Amino acid sequence: MRTHSITSRPARGFTLVELIAVLTLVGILSAVAFPALSALDDARDAALINEVERRLWVARTSAMSTGLPTGVRFDIPGNDATTWRLREDAGGIERVIGAGGDSAAPLGSLFRGGGIASFAPIEPGGDATAWFDYMGRPHARSADGTTRIEWTDDAVVTMLDERRITIRRLTGSIER
């Protein structure tokens, strides 16, 4: 018959020095990573406002070069800004995708976490679209695009991070 001797097993776990070393490393890494993530958010927000401003400039330039009213429609709940143009045959409006217009992907999917907070003013009878005429002057239009509505004030696009783009009522100038 065999007998087993009782031997002590080595203790499993970590020493206090090892735990302190790991916690110190985690603290250092988080101190370095947090500002880097914040910088990514800032870069995303800057890219988003640049894209919205670009779409406004493209719409204004397109209206001036084609003579067709062109605008940027702001979908606040959908977090998007899409480019639209009045059809030449006066048969309503059509979306402009590519060739200087916007991409098919909504801004919310391109710039996750950032977004458009508001567009004002929305004139009575109009929608949240900044239209430009052949001289680059801004105005509103009815939802189907047939009726022109003059702006009574400058328009302001406000982003979620409180940055703003102003569209001047009299000149169509797009400013930050």
Textual characterization of the structure:
This protein is of the alpha+beta class. The protein has 2 helices and 10 strands. It has helices at residues 16-66, 107-110, and strands at residues 70-75, 80-86, 93-96, 116-120, 129-132, 138-141, 148-149, 155-159, 164-167, 174-175. A hairpin with a 6-residue loop joins strand 6 and strand 7 (148-149). It is elongated, with a radius of gyration of 28 Å.
Radius of gyration: 28 Å
Q: Strand share of the residues?
A: 15-25%
The strands making up the biggest β-sheet line up spatially as: 3-2-1-5-6-7
Which word captures the global form? elongated
Summarize the main sheet. Answer: 6 strands, antiparallel
Flag low-confidence runs: none
* Global mean pLDDT: 84
Secondary-structure blueprint:
Layout: H1 16-66, E1 70-75, E2 80-86, E3 93-96, H2 107-110, E4 116-120, E5 129-132, E6 138-141, E7 148-149, E8 155-159, E9 164-167, E10 174-175
Antiparallel strand pairs: 1-2, 1-5, 2-3, 4-8, 5-6, 6-7, 8-9, 9-10
